[in-house]
Amino acid sequence: MPQIRALSAAFASAAVICLVTASMPSTAQESTPAAASPDPNSVVAEINGEKVTRQQVIDSADDLPAQVRAQIDLVFPQLLERYIGLTLIGAEGRKQNLAEDPTVKKRVAEAEEQAIRQAYVGQVLQEKVTDEAMRARYDEKVKELADVEEVRAQHILVEKEEDAKAIIAELQGGADFAELAKTKSTDKGSGANGGELGWFTKDVMVKEFSDAAFAMKPGDISAEPVKTQFGWHVIKVAERRKKAPPSFEQMKSQIQADLSEEAIQQVVDDLRKAADVKILIAPAPQP
């Protein structure tokens, strides 16, 4: 399969050019290109009589890492060298009639199919995932969060129930909660901060702890130890409040992702209903 071997060699050469010319200046024997103009249509080189524009070189960097594309002006001379190398390799491959190679044709067809899919999805998302749609979804989320409550609490964690009861007795006798947390809590992280857990919603903590904490009022200390998988807790609730919803900007990326996923799934569902699809393999086993 000489054509396939030649194709592989071409791709290998392209990879070498990409790696080497990205870190090396042009050789002394070649002419040094003039400083690149900000005009994307400016001609920056000629290859066998064919003009090369600045925009063509920039477009060729789409497959490179974002940190490279973010410094186009800085690395433009290296990108131009890379573009020249890739163009010459492609031209040589065409001279060897590799455009007719079955493997090349298959890859071209796959690339075309991928480009068409991406273009169609882009159209769908542009139509469905608008600023208005994202704002509407944000308003829905805010309504859902309107009644979410959170508490700020402290706790002292010990291994035995009798130790927790003894701590409760000390607290009822006037002992300072924060000081007991520092000296007696096995949760050293919060203990060093007086048992402080900060603000949390009911779904954050294990059920037994949350049920007890959210049944208490500000200033209350649990009258009985609370058992969880971690041990025995003595809880003090400092404050309660309605949870403030995040801002639109904080939620925008997640909302955009949710709406995009929903829009694409809806398109697939609609197309599937209109298509004649037959699955000819056994269904996947249920978990």
Characteristic key phrases:
four-stranded antiparallel sheet, alpha+beta, 11 helices, 287 residues, 6 strands, disordered N terminus
Rg from alpha-carbon coordinates:
32 Å
H/E series:
HEEHHHHHEHHHEHEEH
Taking the alpha carbons of the first and last residues, their distance comes to 45 Å
Biggest sheet descriptor: 4 strands, antiparallel
How many runs of DSSP E, i.e. beta strands?
6
What are the low-pLDDT stretches, counting only 5+ consecutive residues below 50?
Answer: 1-34
The helicity comes to: 40-55%
Number of helices: 11
Question: What order do the helices and strands come in, and which of them pair?
Answer:
Elements: H1 2-21, E1 43-47, E2 50-53, H2 54-59, H3 66-69, H4 72-95, H5 102-128, H6 131-145, E3 149-158, H7 161-172, H8 177-184, H9 188-191, E4 196-201, H10 207-213, E5 226-228, E6 231-242, H11 248-274
Antiparallel strand pairs: 1-2, 3-4, 3-6, 5-6
Helix pairs in contact: 1-4, 5-11, 6-11
Structure description:
- This protein is of the alpha+beta class and 287 residues long.
- Helix content is 54%, strand content 14%.
- The chain contains eleven helices and six strands.
- It has a four-stranded antiparallel beta sheet. The chain has a two-stranded antiparallel ribbon with strand order 1-2.
- Helix 1 runs antiparallel to helix 4.
- It is elongated and about 95 Å long.
- The N terminus is likely disordered.
